[in-house]
Amino acid sequence: MARRWAAFLAVVGLVASALGLAAPAQADTQQLKVATYNIYLGADLGPLALAQTPQELVARAGIAYDQVVATDFPSRARAISRLLRQERPEVVGLQEVALWKKGPLGGPLHTTYDFLDILLRKLRSAGLHYRAAAVDNTGTITLPISATERASFTNRDAILVQDGLPVTNAQSHLYAAKFTFTTPFGVTFTFPRGWSAVDVALKGKGKGKPARVRVATTHLQPGVPPIRNAQGQELYAALAQSPYPVTALGDFNALPTEATGPYGTFTNGGYDDAWRTTHGPGGGFTAIQDPDLRNLPSKLSARIDYVFYQPAHLSAVSARLIGDKVRDRTPTGLWPSDHAGLVVRLRLQ
After folding, report:
1. CA quadruple 45, 335, 90, 346: dihedral, nearest 10
2. Region 308-314 average pLDDT
3. Of 9, 91, 112, 211, whose CA is between 20 and 30 Å from 153?
């Protein structure tokens, strides 16, 4: 019986091939596996905005820097590299790729934690070889953290691409819409946000030159919907100029139910949501764990990280979360990030 079944399948395959029904669909398939991951800057900076005096601001800044040390990015980067090794996406969009420096008051600052360098080294140790194809630097804040020291934080987003994958037109931009905040004692902070994009060649056996896809990543403003929404509209308008199919991925700081926010801007404007396409509207929670990353059970209960894609040109084959399970934590019990990552396989239509 088994031999007759195998013979039948072989005949069906020959007929389909002769009629051109099966072989071209396989031969022309071109795919791209992407991931988005907010890797967490290491501390909750929100309390800084609540300081009522300069002295309180210094105290709160010191607490924030101590939290960066305690959340131990080198250990978390090792955990993140293990997760990416399991999935091996060709392109990874990262948010909160922090650069921390510290030094004496009035003296030079020295790098203490360069999240991009640390993660790339951990990836290499895990047998993965990525390069930073585009990095947007959205500004630096420097504050005293004690009576004798100061520290600086530089916020960045980055696109990592596997070595050997052709990339062109790397670009990074800042949004015109930005959040500005003035403390009760007259100190003003401005928090720009930005986006990066690259054009990458899809893997596969397509005829002729490989198709290209524009991959963009961003981290939109949290907590201030009008600014976040304006940034989302800026990104949508910029990507509309692409000569290639587009996938936009990142931390959009918007729920799917916010029809007037970035989710609605993209899904009403010709994009699909990869998680919703492959799993339906439920689940897929990516945010947010406690600032110290030690909470149990997991507190992921909101979906704000997305992979949007243009269904006229691309289809979502699969989507899965990473970094959301207890076994993903570091040996000392830290979640890899306060977000889960999202990995999506896309196919050229």
Report:
1. -90
2. 97
3. 91
